[in-house]
## 1
Amino acid sequence: MLPADLARGAQVFARALREVLDGRPDEHLTLSLFASEAAHLRPDVALGLGDGRARRLGFDPRAGLALRRALRAMAPDVVVAHGGEALKYAVVARPRGSALVYKKTGSSVESLGGRMRRALYRRLAAQADLTAAVAEEAVTEARHLLRLPEDRVMLAPNGRDPSRFRPRQARGVGVAPRLVFLGRLTSGKRPDWFLDAVRRLRERGSQVEGVIVGDGPLTEALAPLATEAGVEMLGRRDDIPEILADADVFVFTGVSEGEGMPGVLIEAGLAGLPAVTTAVSGAGTVIVHGVTGLVVPVDDLDALVDALHQLVIDSRLRGRMGAAARQRCLEHFTLDASAAHWQELFDRVLERR
């Protein structure tokens, strides 16, 4: 269950996981609460509720009632609430006898800063039979910030279908390395940092190409800055594997709040790209610093530029790290590996009923 169908990694993963797990041997369905343009989830059940003031204030009673009716009709053995917002509604709406799994994704340290808010989410999380955390940082938060018992928290990393991605092909001698940013154009993803990094690399004498893939509220403001920086903005695209296959380095510039395990880091790894990433939650789980990429402090743009410079000037280093990144993602972050984690989780929670 997700709040809405959006063009985000969470919806991409939920849909792919549902398709892999369905019929193994159980039936798996997806549900969305609030109306949105159809994107990646394509839910089996879409309640289509309006995004009103009550939701923005924290809880929409209509959504709780509608979800309760829907779940009674579906009679699920397990309800999976994806994220904190979904958890609020699942706690009040789940049918008697249904197990509840809370999928903890992003970091909660800043959003749960207030004492009352922390207390509320601790009580909500305590209602879940099991919490599935996407990264080691999320496991630690669940145990310490939310005070959940160790035996009720399980690591369940994200995954991607490796058949969709292929290692990059050599782009020829003398071709400028291509850096790619992939994500929503929001303040949390900081695409402006990518533009600054490309500009600074060129000031150091490095000939690089820059490509931004994605759309969002900052698109209009970024357009003239991208033109000035000589960075191409491709907008929202469906041919992500092909774009990654034509790149040399993947760049992730996001802030900590809200990140759980960026799926784009897995996609880049499966495409054989080394990554330079800020140290958001999950980055250190996917990226082995110095082996498959470079991880820099979240608020250190200078460190980001320095790390990119290392890769830009050394094609052999890019090749070694890219090959290691692909191997690591094939071993740990495929969709089948993720499905195995979730099947184990479902088996465990159903055994406790």
Note: The chain has two domains: 9-159+334-351, 162-332.
## 2
Amino acid sequence: QLQTSFDTLETKNKVFEAVIQDIVQVSHGLAEGNLRVTPQAEYKGELLKIKGALVAALYNQRMVIEDIVQLSQGLAEAKGQNQAKIKYKGDFVQVKNALEVAGNKLLAASKKNAIQDWFKTVTKYQSGPSILVMARNSSSCVFSITI
């Protein structure tokens, strides 16, 4: 009976060791910036909750990073798409809010620059009294443009 108890403890110890090693491996992967690292050990019983939480955390971080990349690319290409595609939770909500505020400000600045560039281009080819006439005639138009 003592041997059976010892064997049971030894088996559980091996399972715990494997799970701990797996968590360490995933943690090292994250520390190196690898969000595609996945748990490899066989989790059983209550330890399945740990694996589920670990997989969910990895997935959520990966989705946030992918969302940031897509939002950044959209802003760089002036596509105007600055809304997050995933639902952010916890502290990641701050990331989403900051991205959306930055995106809105950048988009507004891009629109303003487009109007100013248009006006600079027009003024480059106009001079003297004709520019004053054009400015008076187009000023109401310029400020009513919706982009």
Note: The chain has a mean pLDDT of 78.
